[in-house]
Amino acid sequence: MPPTARSDVPRPPQFDIPFYEDLSIPTPDGESLSAFYIRAPKTPLFRNITVLMFHGNAGNIGHRIPIAKVFQQSLGCNVLMLEYRGYGLSTGTPDEQGLVLDAQTALEYLLQRADTRDTRVVVYGQSLGGAVGVQLVARNQKYNEVSGLILENTFTSMRKLIPSAIPPARYLARLCHQVWPTDDTIPTIKEVPILFLSGLEDEIVP
Description:
The protein has helices spanning 65-74, 96-112, 128-140, 158-165, 182-185; strands at residues 21-26, 32-38, 49-54, 78-82, 120-126, 148-152, 194-197. The protein is of the alpha/beta class. The mean pLDDT is 88.
């Protein structure tokens, strides 16, 4: 993670996105989550879709603005970029239970917000964000609140990732208390279509 990732967060105007909202979303357990809301342009490309973005472990939401720009400008989608607790300008300390709550908080924010509650929500998760997204969609699919799930180079579980990412620690993988059981959870998602994206040159997620 870049050493300044907790304080230096790029903003959308730095990527030619002049109109956005800099949000602070409260969680039920008292944390404050930083987020960017980028509204889709009202052009013929507008698709009435809101993408809920969950980023990977390294960096912060500002480092993923180029991806959000593609969703907004090339695909005509609204985008909510959520910063987990303990990342960027959000308060708190990250852990599995906390990030699951953060994701639920972000979804509920979209479902209550006047200009997004009637849009279709598509969850996009990159690496760790994919694990977060899988848990969110699995818990909410029966309510028909998510229309799609996009996973980019998401690991099967944290314990299975450790041997390839940190070979010397492979014998300690079973002791890892952050589980993220993506491979066990994905088969339970039967009501939401899933798009898997994977790069063969990823040096961390096999």
